[in-house]
Amino acid sequence: MTARAHVRHRVPGRARLRIPEMRGDPAYFSALADWLAGLDGVDDVRTDYRTGGVLVLHPHKPLEALRDRAYEAGWFLLEDLEVAPLPGMDTMERRIRDFDERLGRASQGELDMRALLFLLLMGMAGRQVLQGQVAAPAVTLLRYAMDLLGNNPFRGA
Asked: Full-prediction pTM beyond 0.70?
């Protein structure tokens, strides 16, 4: 029986897969890494048997071709090339939307999640400045705060 794989993250030329059925099997992941690294179009492969993870850098071959080769060779079945949703993500998104709506009602429309996050990040930046940590953390927090407002003068720099 061929193990099932799932895409956890994907950008052109790079894919992070999970093969949960084989988690904890160092021999499988070592042999899989060697096999994948030998494929034409694959530049680098990293595996982690503890998590069941596989990172494939494949800038010269589409993931569809690698998927087909892996299945034909009996390594894994990758049914869907789209990123698999994280468990519970729908519930978390719904709870965040619900909180945002309650926050708006409680503040009579004066506050929403973006504004709350802006204030929180500005406060964290101020704390970093007061502690003398201006160079990286304060600047980073200020950038995030400005991104939330949508008018970051540092964006693209």
From this structure: no
